[in-house]
């Protein structure tokens, strides 16, 4: 992975999405997955923003989110590597596109063994070298 695009942090937030998704699906999956990383790591959230007129805005993550893409096999391999390493992940499966709320999303994942999940996205926050190893074979999203 290109070191020029690596943030100057000891850790990375990375999202990996399937390269065969529609653009709206890629954006939707990325948003859901980043919310999982944020929920698991609230310490990564910065302070609220304010403009010169005194309007305040919600805080954002205090570090960049790197978005990668890859084929189905790339996601499967990354998922397996993360599980072997004990790295916490957020996952999004194809079945979740047909659900309407969080309980149905969780049920869609709970009914399938890990090796059989039809992954369309995953996200993680971990030390940079671990993320690089887990996402081996993925490429930065254009």
UniProtKB/TrEMBL annotation:
Xref: Pfam families = DUF2000 (PF09391)
Q: Which domain of life is it from?
A: Bacteria
| Family annotation (InterPro entries) | DUF2000, Pep_tRNA_hydro_II_dom_sf
What's the name of the protein?
A: DUF2000 domain-containing protein
Q: Which organism is it from?
A: Terrabacter tumescens
